[in-house]
Amino acid sequence: MNEAEVSPQDAMATGHRLSGQPVRAVHPAHPGGNNRVFQLEMAGGDRLALKYYRSPSIDGRDRLGQEYEALSFLAHHGIASTPRPIARDVHSNCALYQWLDGEAAALRPQADDVDQLAEFLVGLQRLRQAAGAMNLRNASASIFSANQAVAQCQARLNRLQGSAGECPDLREFLDRDLVPSCATVVRRVEERFADLGWDPAAVLSVAHRALSPSDFGLHNALRSPDGRLKFIDFEYFGWDDPVKLISDTAIHPGSNFSEASAIRLIEHLSTEFSIHDPSFAVRRDVLYPVFGMIWCLIILNDYLPESRSMRILSAQGGDLAARLAGQLDKARRLHQTICQRDSDLTSRGSRPHLQAG
Asked: What is the CA radius of gyration of the chain?
């Protein structure tokens, strides 16, 4: 069933079939970028969430399978801050979950939010050797070597350069700022690994990998009345490099952390991962700017012709130019933040260039 075709009546019938209980009322919840979600009021008084997913044929990702298996694993091991899975229907590409109450955490950030996020991520790592952990999939866009991180950065940059011809503001930002910065961080990865005698193609050992929600931050958190955070949206959950986990969480624009909060998160999580991996701190320091550049490129995905958010906005009659300008401003500000942390990026000399593929 296509998400655009889902009606409240369809959701009521599916909820009844999956739960085995009558559904008293159906309320469309605020949908995320990829799904349509309904709150179901059950005849017995419970409330459940019915979530429809994008078809795997759209981009090859089995979002339903990835999220349902991840949340089943977490529920089995007693994690109470994520939705409990109830039933799924592969044919209709939907699943039924426990409904979590709470206000969107990003609306009113609190001082201890970063500590709660770090606490949750550290708790996940306690499950790395738990039953069923090795059966979990890799996280979306996971990387397990320095070369993979560099290749991901290069591929995203190449795609964006191919779409920038008719966008002078984007082209200027790429040519003046992002392309030279990407070249600098990539060259530094190569030089640092060579100095240490490390192979940048070496794959990170399983023992040093992390369990990661991949898309994690205040944008996917709900605040309970007691102030505790609960977490939703685990479609990208799986195994990943802990350096990428830390970088993605600290940088994610959905959280918009201050510099002090980002540093506190990085320090908290680095303590966890450095205990068993003596190379972690070095890899973190050299790869963090690479992931910073990748996030600048992710923010600019709306410029790509296959951008789904832009297709939706266009269909709804939205202001495409305003949307693109806003995303470009976000990318510029993030790029500036990354450069301010890094003297090599702040004062680039010869401004070397990555070659477009």
From this structure: 21
Dihedral angle at the C-alpha atoms of 143, 54, 307, 355, nearest 10 degrees? 20
Q: How confident is the model over 287-296, as pLDDT tens digits?
A: 999 999 999 9
Considering the entire predicted model, what is its pTM?
0.90
Q: Are 150 and 186 in contact (CB under 8 A)?
A: yes
Q: Give the pLDDT confidence of 147-172 residue by residue, as tens digits.
A: 999 999 999 999 999 988 889 999 99
Q: What value, to the nearest 5°, has the Cα angle with vertex 257 and ends 121 and 104? A: 75
**Tally of residues, the chain:** 357
Residues 6+ apart with CB under 8 A from 202: 145
- Rounded Cα–Cα distance for residues 355 and 349 (Å): 18
* Residues spanned by the domain of 174: 106-346
Position of tokens 């799904």?
A: 35
CATH code where residue 191 lies: 3.90.1200.10
My answer on whether 129 and 30 are in the same domain is: no
Contact 286, 145 (CB under 8 A): no
> Region 128-146: what's the mean pLDDT?
97
Give the pair of three-digit tokens for residue 159: 């795609």
Sheet-wide strand order for 103-104? 103-104, 221-223, 229-231
- Strand, coil or helix: what is 108? coil
